[in-house]
């Protein structure tokens, strides 16, 4: 079976300018799509040579990583003034849901390593579009998505309840 990796970034708060577009295009020869609001790169072998979170911090607001070996990653870049970390600290853990502050932003990261469901087909582009909306909900104080992610992490960590 061949390997598949999807890296997708979405800009929400502002669009990339011409210089930024050129910088993003130069990140990889495998870039599938680069626009003022979006960048996508996929790999059938190898992987992205840069740190996706650093690309997110510099240019975008949402990052999604998907692979056919079950590892998935979602990171939101949220301006510090729009999210009080104390409001979401009950959902955070060291493994699945993390919050890190870098400069003027919080990076809220959710990860999932589901090796058992590696053959399940997921439209990664659709996933980027749908998950981007959660960022706005979190900024507005709607933490239902974090609660669901936290519940999923508890089940992953402790096993399915009887």
Quick recap:
Strand 2 and strand 3 form a beta hairpin. The longest helix is centred in the last third of the chain and has 16 residues, at 124-139.
Characterization of the model:
With 162 residues, the chain is of the alpha+beta class. It contains five helices and seven strands, in the order βαββαββαββαα. The chain has helices spanning 18-25, 52-59, 85-88, 124-139, 144-158; strands spanning 5-10, 31-35, 38-43, 62-67, 71-79, 97-102, 105-113. It has a seven-stranded antiparallel β-sheet, sandwiched between helices.
Reported for the largest beta sheet, the result is: 7 strands, antiparallel
Helix content: 25-40%
> What class do helices, strands and sheet pairing give?
alpha+beta
State the total count of DSSP E strands.
Answer: 7
Outline type = globular
Report the average pLDDT across residues.
89
Order of helices and strands: EHEEHEEHEEHH
Terminal Cα span: 35 Å
Q: Which range does the strand content fall in? A: 25-35%
| Helical run tally | 5
Ranges where pLDDT stays below 50 over 5 or more residues in a row are: none
Rounded to an integer, what's the Rg over CA atoms? 16 Å
Strand order of the largest sheet: 2-3-1-4-5-7-6
């Amino acid at each position: 079976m061949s390997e598949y990796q999807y890296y997708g970034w979405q800009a929400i708060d502002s669009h990339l300018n011409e210089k930024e577009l050129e910088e993003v295009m130069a990140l990889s020869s495998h870039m599938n799509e680069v626009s003022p609001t979006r960048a996508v790169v996929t790999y059938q072998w190898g992987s992205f040579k840069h740190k996706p979170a650093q690309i997110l911090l510099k240019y975008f607001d949402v990052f999604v990583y998907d692979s056919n070996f079950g590892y998935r990653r979602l990171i939101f870049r949220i301006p510090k003034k729009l999210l009080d970390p104390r409001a979401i600290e009950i959902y955070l853990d060291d493994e699945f849901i993390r919050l890190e502050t870098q400069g003027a932003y919080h990076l809220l990261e959710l990860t999932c390593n589901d090796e058992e469901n590696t053959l399940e087909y997921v439209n990664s582009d659709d996933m980027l579009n749908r998950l981007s909306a959660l960022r706005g909900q979190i900024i507005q104080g709607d933490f239902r998505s974090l609660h669901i992610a936290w519940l999923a992490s508890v089940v992953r960590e402790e096993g399915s309840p009887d």
